[in-house]
Amino acid sequence: MQIIGRRIFSALMLLGCVVTVYQLFSRPQPVASPQSHEVAKTNASSFAQKLQQLESPRAAGETPAEVHFSSDEVSAEITQSASPQPAVATGQVKPVGSAPSSPDAVVGSGEVQVNGYQVKLDGDVARGQFATQIAGKDVYVTLAGHLGSQDGYVTFEPTEFKVGDLSIPVSLVNSALQKKLAEQREQLKLPQGVAALRVENDELVITQK
Q1: What is the pLDDT of residues 59-89, one digit of tens each?
Q2: Strand ranges of the sheet holding 137-150, from the earlier edge strand across to the other edge
């Protein structure tokens, strides 16, 4: 009976591993509808034009300008900004051949090649999705959370993390994510003339200093 029990347990474990791997490499539901090249170009241009409003000096006593950006504008701007740099942070591509050893590996590595950025602003939550390659296969990472600012720097508090269709508890990745943000702190410094930013009512809101 013990042998039969062990075999049943082993079969269940194997089935669980297969399901997990399948979920990792499954393509999740896109967080936003893809934009054509022309539409993305228009939205990126709109983002840049709105941003220029924050650069205009304001008179003493004048209320700071507040600019609102849609999901499509933000997504187009991120895609355009990232396109000349196919690798994240270090400019290098992580060697393929093995799946991530832990959720922290997905967040913590600075040598992952990513593409296919999508952004969706939903209420006060920013949700992003991108594709990377692991073991020669496309793996989709979805990350959501509260985007804000504090002491002149951008902040991000995650509320959701998924690899493929597999949801991973935020508590398992938050420490690695916050460590990565701390390492890139200077890159998260708000531009001169920007006082704060937040996500509100499906929009990114940036306030003039």
Answers
A1: 777 788 899 999 999 988 888 876 654 444 4
A2: 114-122, 125-134, 137-150, 153-163, 166-167
Radius of gyration of the chain (CA): 20
In this structure, the dihedral spanned by the alpha carbons of residues 160, 25, 106 and 158, taken in order and rounded to 10 degrees, is -10
**Which residue matches tokens 């692991």?**
134
| Per-residue pLDDT tens digits for 121-149 | 999 999 988 888 777 778 888 899 999 99
Residues 6+ apart with CB under 8 A from 17: none
Please give the torsion angle defined by the CA atoms of residues 38, 43, 48 and 54, in that order, rounded to the nearest 10 degrees.
170
128 CB neighbour count, 10 Å cutoff: 21
> What's the Cα-to-Cα distance from 192 to each of 69, 109, 189, rounded to whole Å?
18, 29, 9
Q: What pTM did the predictor assign?
A: 0.71
Q: What crossing angle do the helices spanning 71-82 and 37-52 adopt, rounded to 10°?
A: 100
Terminal Cα distance for the chain, rounded: 73
Q: What is the dihedral of CA 44, 45, 50, 53, to 10 degrees?
A: 130
- CA–CA separation, 79 and 36 (whole Å): 12
Report the C-alpha gap between 103 and 183 in whole angstroms.
Answer: 18
Whether 148 contacts 155, CB under 8 Å: yes
